[in-house]
Design goal:
Blueprint (H helix, E strand, L loop, with lengths): L1 H19 L4 H9 L5 H17 L2 E4 L1 E6 L25 H14 L3 E6 L7 H14 L4 E5 L5 H9 L2 E5 L7 H7 L6 H14 L2 E4 L2 E2 L6 H14 L3 E2 L2 E2 L16 H14 L9 H6 L3 H6 L5 E2 L6 H4 L15 H14 L3 E3 L11
Helix pairs in contact: 1-3, 2-9, 3-10, 4-5, 6-8
Bound molecules: S-adenosyl-L-homocysteine (SAH).
The site of S-adenosyl-L-homocysteine (SAH) has 19 residues, from loops.
Amino acid sequence: MQESFERAYPFELADKLETEGNLTDDELKAVLLFDAPGFDEYLAGKARAVREKHYGKEVYLRGLIEFTNYCKNNCYYCGIRRGNANAERYRLSEDLILSCCDMGYELGFRTFVLQGGEDPYYTDELVVSIVSAIKERHPDCAVTLSIGEREKESYQKFFDAGAERYLLRHETADKAHYRMLHPDELSFDHRMQCLKNLKEIGYQVGTGMMVGSPYQTTEHLVKDLRFLKDFGPEMVGMGPFIPHHDTCFADSPAGTVEMTVRLLAVIRLLLPDVLLPATTALGTIDPIGREKGLLAGANVIMPNLSPADVRSKYLLYDNKKVTGDEAAEAVRDMTRRISSVGYEAVVARGDHANFRK
Ligand code: SAH
């Protein structure tokens, strides 16, 4: 009797998470640690039901442009950290970024995500110029920035220029853990302040963490989930940590596909209408990792629109899935993968429900 009660308990927690959209920290921990046949399928089924209620079968495609791999920071886990003398650095000119967007627009993309290292070459003025030019050429598109920590005034300028979304992962919600992943010149409090500022300005904000980063415990992940629930981002970017051979964590193990997929399902249930990408990192540790993510509640995929010759240089981690394919081929491949699991690729702007025009 006792035994069957214990076996059923996490399944009950999954039910509770679906109906209430929340659990206590202890309950979340139990959900993350539970190991029994059928549990992941059960949880993923709930996550799919919730995503389909809010988004039907649609998966949003966002065109990702990795426009610089110069970075002034030295995050211990990241392959483009400034201390990595082996990284071959590149920057895309404004013209090249615009032509990536034009090509993406032709392919149907209506969201462009500009991501890069923290590169002071791109002054506030230059970022404003790039964002304004994209909006001028493609007023029906959304521009997302993912360029790290800047002052609130800078974020405001980018917003006024037409950037409506910003991705800044919190990386870990535990201050002591944050210290283990970053040098002293970076601060947990400043990153959190940036997230608050972005929200105050009115951005659709994305945040998130790596799964299985060095020194990460289940308690840290519970803290991450609590932070996500309290902060209420419009998007959660989360993928497995993967070691890069030129970093301090070259010998650390990668995060697992199982834990990443379980966390995706939990996040879908905690934040029912959040935009949730199945990340490239997930597709890197498992050839069908992104498909598994889609089947656990993820509803966004970001194909790479960067020029083929720089794609192989934006290496945050080892073995990153990089193809020399034309973007058009990448889109066809992604569309096939998405329909292989019963969903439908769409290129609409795909704003969060609270921001639909
Ligand atoms: N400079 C920007 C963009 C960073 S790159 C910023 O600071 O926000 C985007 C994300 O890649 C990071 O937020 C981090 O979570 C992830 N990343 C970096 N190194 C990684 C690694 N080794 N494995 C997996 N993800 C990594």
